[in-house]
Write a structure and sequence with these properties.
- The protein is built from 15 helices and 21 strands.
- It is of the alpha+beta class.
- The chain has three domains: 210 residues, Rhopdopsin 7-helix transmembrane proteins; 155 residues, Sandwich (Jelly Rolls); 143 residues, Histidine kinase-like ATPase, C-terminal domain (Heat Shock Protein 90).
- A six-stranded antiparallel sheet has the order 3-2-5-11-8-9, with no helix packed on it.
């Protein structure tokens, strides 16, 4: 993690005040036009298949919170109010009623006629607790006086829900002109439904991206846990706008309760991993706790969901608080600069979660709960962008490290070449041999060990591949420096294995032809082995990278005192712009230079569209010793 955190992304800083302002407008709503607000109604609990007897009804104040007025009742309750509509009868004026909260589904009857149905009244019951509803009242159903407005609410008892906010209930009923109430309905819908829908979608997309980043880079596992936290919070927010589910109410409540356990798991592990700590027993304890929560809720049953879930919610909230305190104390102790950013963020999220908890467990205004749910979402999005920024910087640092490694490898290779050229000119065999062995030992013990460490520890595939190639080149150089000759038959076997492997991995069909071991004489000098290997590697690299060939054949022959290597492909050939300048293209000059050092020659035959043939000829009497 970078030591010096930068400022939040400007887009989030600019977006936050607007979202909070939109939330405030949505909570308050526009100025109300002249409307009639019913704050009392007659109410009656309906029984299936029984005609309601309104002589048994009782008066009740609105809003009616079933958790207080009828905590054990689960079913359909009817509410009745009377009103006059002289101004709308015989005119084109359209009346409407506005119901801010009817939990969980609503039917509206006007003068005994069904005028509106807001959701499924039987299982699976629609979940419209947070959705404001606007019901037009057709003039044909209205009378000048004595209109009977009956609202039927399908709701659930407090013990059957995980939060008090989802217990049955009805808000005050507003009656007025449709246009005025429609404006209020639009504002309320934008804040209570549309904004959470957009926020939860954004959280889910960002969370999935962070989860994949953390999954692919296990050293940044905190990204995966934070991504899971964002996805879990997005799913929790979806309860505000996702109303139609294909399973019963009890299943939805159970899933929402269990989701809290999963979110707590992700939050605790994120805080610990982001602090650079890993507590092994929590890796087992948190999933076990989630399983225990599921079992306890199933044993309690849907009729006792609320009391059991409340205990679990309090325990899980305490766990998150302890993890946040541990993170802040540990970060403060190590004097990390990220404390100045994470401290206020965790404080804001803590206050918002406490407010949300109070809104769920008490009669706190649900609109305050809405704002408390959105604040952590905005914090999560800002922190997610911050983590993405840190991840990008880490990648940039890795790329810089790779570039520096390439430079060092080139410098080391150039130094090896210079040393080799100088040693070949000294003509003092003892000194030359001693120096070669020293360089080879230094390369093997120092540079070789470092490259091998990079190969096995680097998370970046490009750096790992580059280090592996450098390690092979270094080993080849070490073999050349040691001066040990190689049996020509063994050299042919090494070349065949390397060439066929590279061609196969690149999707090129390879063909190898060489004399049998009995027909291959003596040993090959170390210098000839190294230079021939490099020429062969360069030729194969050109075929893979530039030729576009689908087939390549390599023929090795020994005749008339010469060793000949012919590499032929069916690719595109040398481009026209390099015609007559083959030595300047695709490393041809280096191949020819190496062949010349061995007193041999390297010829290139090519034509655009007819493939390329490279012929390497080496005199055996200079480089092969009989055994």
């Amino acid at each position: 993690m970078p030591k010096s955190p930068s400022a939040w992304p400007r887009a989030v800083v600019r977006l936050l005040p607007w979202l909070l302002w939109l939330g405030l407008l949505g909570a308050l709503g526009p100025a109300q036009a002249q409307t009639l607000v019913f704050r009392h109604a007659l109410t009656l609990e309906l029984k299936p298949g029984v005609t309601p007897d309104w002589t048994l009804a009782r008066s009740i104040a609105l809003p009616d919170d079933w958790a207080a007025s009828r905590p054990r009742f689960s079913g359909t309750a009817a509410y009745r109010v009377l009103f006059d509509a002289e101004s709308s009868v015989g005119t084109n004026a359209l009346f409407a009623i506005y119901v801010e909260r009817a939990c969980s589904a609503l039917e509206v009857h006007v003068n005994g006629q069904l005028a509106y149905r807001g959701g499924q009244m039987t299982e699976p019951v629609s979940r419209n607790c947070q959705r404001p509803q606007l019901v037009p009242l057709p003039s044909a159903l209205l009378q000048a006086q004595g209109n009977v407005l009956e609202l039927r609410v399908r709701g659930f008892a407090l013990d059957e829900v995980g939060s008090r906010q989802r217990a049955g209930g009805l808000s005050p009923i507003e009656l007025g002109a449709h246009d005025a109430l429609a404006q209020r309905h639009r504002w309320r819908t934008a804040f209570a439904i549309r904004l959470p829908e957009v926020v939860s979608g954004t959280l889910a997309l960002m969370g999935l991206g962070l989860f994949v980043m953390g999954w692919l880079n296990r050293r940044q596992s905190y990204l995966a846990y934070f991504g899971a936290l964002m996805v879990g919070w997005a799913l929790a927010l979806s309860r505000l706008w996702l109303t139609e589910l294909p399973w019963p109410h009890a299943t939805s409540e159970l899933l929402l309760a269990v989701l809290m356990s999963v979110t707590t798991w992700a939050a605790v592990q994120f805080l610990l991993r982001y602090a650079g700590r890993r507590i092994r027993w929590l890796d087992i304890g948190l999933p076990a706790q989630g399983a225990l929560m599921v079992v306890s809720l199933l044993v309690a049953g849907p009729q006792r969901l609320y009391p059991v879930a409340s205990v679990w919610f309090a325990l899980l909230s305490l766990e998150i608080g302890v993890a946040a305190a541990y993170y802040l104390l540990d970060t403060h102790r190590r004097r990390q600069r990220q404390l100045w950013l994470m401290g206020p963020l965790l404080g804001i999220v803590g206050v918002a979660l406490a407010t949300e908890f109070l809104a769920q467990q008490t009669r706190l205004d649900v609109r305050i709960g809405y704002v408390a749910q959105l604040v952590p979402s905005l914090i999560f999005m800002a922190l997610g962008l911050r983590l993405v920024q840190q991840y990008g910087r880490a990648l940039e640092s890795a790329e810089q490290g790779r570039a520096e490694l390439e430079v060092r490898i080139r410098e080391a290779t150039a130094q090896i070449e210079r040393n080799f050229a100088q040693l070949s000119e000294l003509k003092v065999e003892q000194v030359t041999d001693r120096e070669r062995k020293r360089i080879a030992a230094d390369l093997h013990d120092d540079l070789g060990a470092k490259l091998l460490t990079i190969v096995h520890t680097s998370d970046n595939e490009r750096i790992s591949t580059l280090a592996r190639e450098a390690l092979e080149e270094m080993r080849l150089s070490v073999r050349g420096l040691t001066g040990k000759p190689v049996r020509l038959a063994d050299a042919l076997g090494d070349w065949r294995a390397e060439v066929m492997s590279r061609l196969t991995q690149s999707g090129v069909e390879g063909e190898w032809s060489a004399p049998s071991d009995d027909d291959v004489p003596g040993t090959l000098s170390a210098r000839a082995y190294v230079q021939t290997t490099r020429i062969l590697r360069e030729a194969v690299s050109n075929i893979i990278k530039h030729s576009g060939a689908s087939r390549c054949s390599v023929r090795c022959t020994i005749a008339e005192g010469d060793f000949q290597l012919v590499i032929q492909d069916n690719g595109n050939g040398i481009p026209l712009e390099l015609d007559g300048r083959l030595d300047k293209g695709h490393g041809m000059a280096s191949m020819k230079g190496r062949a010349k050092q061995l007193q041999g020659q390297c010829l290139v035959e090519s034509g655009p569209g007819y493939g390329t043939v490279i012929r390497l000829t080496l005199p055996l009497d200079r480089h092969v010793t009989a055994t």
